[in-house]
Design goal:
The structure holds two protein chains of two kinds. Helix content of chain A is 77%, strand content 0%. By secondary structure, chain A is mostly helical. In chain B, 37% of the residues lie in helices and 25% in strands. Chain B has nine helices and twelve strands. In chain B, strand 1 and strand 2 form a beta hairpin. Classes of the chains: A mainly alpha, B alpha/beta.
Amino acid sequence: MKVFFEQYFDFNVMGEHFGEVFEAFLQNLLIFAVATVVALAWGLILALLRQSPGKKFLPIRFLTIAYIDVFRAIPLLIVILLISGGVPFLTFLPKSIRIPQWFGEPDPYWYGVTGLVLVYGAYTAEVYRAGIEAVAGGQMEAARSLGMSHFQAMRYVIVPQGVTKIPAPMLNELISLLKDTTLVSVIAFGESVLVSREILAERLNSSALILTAFFFLCITLPMARLVDYLIKRNQAKITRGAHIEVA
Amino acid sequence: MAEPMVQLKGVRKRFGSLEVLKGVDLEVGRGEVICILGPSGSGKSTLLRCVNLLAPPEEGEIFLEGRDICKGPGSGTGESSWNLDFVRQRVGMVFQQFNLFPHKTALENVTLAPQKVLGRSKAEAEEKGRALLERVGLGDRLGQYPETLSGGQQQRVAIARALAMEPHVMLFDEVTSALDPELVKEVLDTMRELAGEGMTMLVVTHEMGFAKEVGDQVVFMDGGVVVEQGDPRQVLDNPREERTQKFLGLVLER
């Protein structure tokens, strides 16, 4: 038993490498923050394209659905590897895109963010879609009958209502996104898992990885509780809605 | 009579294999109130949705102020944006389920489209919106959200919302059917006033009293066609057609 605790919970190892692991974990949070903002926007665009009306937009709908299906179906790790292992060699692209080093972050950081955005854009698009489809059909009819275009109806009527229905499932996606930032370690970006593995190799001890797991727990567990709370609150609202007293 | 406000000629509408309208002819004069009756599934609501192109017909012609709205330049029968703008700026619609925007206040419901579609300034739209809500008796409810209003109040906001676009024709799709009985009158009163001011109205309704009192014409539909049409008293009190008699018998014996 002592061996077990020393292997996984050696507080000396944790203490010595605390600063190092913590700083690396901040890199995970940085990837998360940027990827979240871009993926949420990209997902909304995809969801709107998927809902575009009429025959005219059929090719766009088809392409959007194909994109969403493909990126939900293949492993994120493959996407990241395809980007980091291929984009640098696409010589027809300008160097600032092949080997991006924007805002002082190294190229693996941007390859990782791109992979996460491509895949999580597809995931979040489906969540947005659920929200949009949960808005009653009469809302679109009413907006259109007032002369609004499909796009205006989406922007001012449908989407503002749709997004209030999805914070809980969206937050679930973001929890996954945060955890998946660790995949960027495979392309040699110095985030917390990469750093912990280096410590594991050096000290033959897993405590740094446990410390990393603990950092994730500190963020994801409150997020998960928030999801529960939001679901409960939403249900309360629905139940209350059934008994609204007329003014 | 001058050129009719709305004219339908041989209008057919299909949903998949189901033909809902099987050739409807109808003429609505300027300022006329036409009440459309008929059993459920007879195509009444679809007829209204054809007139504002929410459900464009497959065949036939619809003239709005003399213009064939089913034929856009080069687009054949069906939806074209050229016609949509023309139609939806002239035709307002009120729905059975109100369909107010729940995330907007009463005033915002009324001012949204004038700002976004007609390009009115916020102040301008609000001034007009206030006046309209005042007119439907809701001047003291401007800041309230739909869920805090009664059904009758919501429906009056919906009427004000449609009027804010300054339509020439108003479509009413069973607007009192989802209301508690005691709330029906306030909505009908609003419609009565509107009719008195000379608005052209197409009203799908089961309110026989309203049809008799306010309607200039009553149209009885069944099975996707107009079965009988004429003066309200004549159609409602002495229907010629057997199907009309049978329907009215069932409705009135309630």
